[in-house]
UniProtKB/TrEMBL annotation:
SUPFAM superfamilies: lambda repressor-like DNA-binding domains
Gene Ontology MF, one: DNA binding
Organism name: Acetobacter estunensis
Pfam family, one: HTH_31
Protein name per its UniProtKB record: Helix-turn-helix domain-containing protein
Domain HTH cro/C1-type: 22-76
InterPro entries for this protein: Cro/C1-type_HTH (IPR001387), Lambda_DNA-bd_dom_sf (IPR010982), Rad_response_metalloprotease (IPR052345)
PROSITE patterns recorded: HTH_CROC1
Length: 127
């Protein structure tokens, strides 16, 4: 996995465009535009158009991109996935949340991807 580029360290918030989010996640994954295009069966110029917000057809590919980059679909729509809730947390959960919040965006994505991989492995191992 590639190291997080400095652009990804900036918040993937709603003030950024969909194209910027796609570019940041592609770079974080260590992929070139050409490689992403090949994986999706598209041209490199199609990816370039997405990343510069010149092609509205990107939305039909968002579920595939979310799967490929191992991030929730919400990341493309809103930036970092967020969900507000009022819950009681254990001491361990409070510690984990504190540590998670101290990470930059690239590191948070890495943690999310790791958790998703662990859960998939557990699901495959379950009888």
């Amino acid at each position: 996995m590639a190291r997080a580029p400095s652009a990804l360290k900036a918040e993937l918030g709603s003030h950024e465009t969909l194209g910027q989010r796609i570019r940041a996640l592609r770079q974080y994954a260590g992929m070139t535009q050409a490689k992403l295009a090949t994986v999706l069966g598209l041209s490199r110029s199609a990816i370039a158009h997405w990343e510069t917000d010149r092609d509205g057809r990107v939305r039909q590919y968002l579920p595939r991109l979310a799967e490929l980059f191992e991030v929730p679909l919400e990341v493309f729509l809103n930036g970092m996935a967020t969900q507000e809730a009022v819950v009681e947390l254990t001491i361990d959960e409070v510690d984990l949340l504190r540590l998670y919040r101290s990470l930059d965006v690239g590191e948070r994505l890495s943690v999310q991807r790791s958790i998703m991989r662990l859960l998939r492995r557990r699901q495959k191992a379950a009888p």
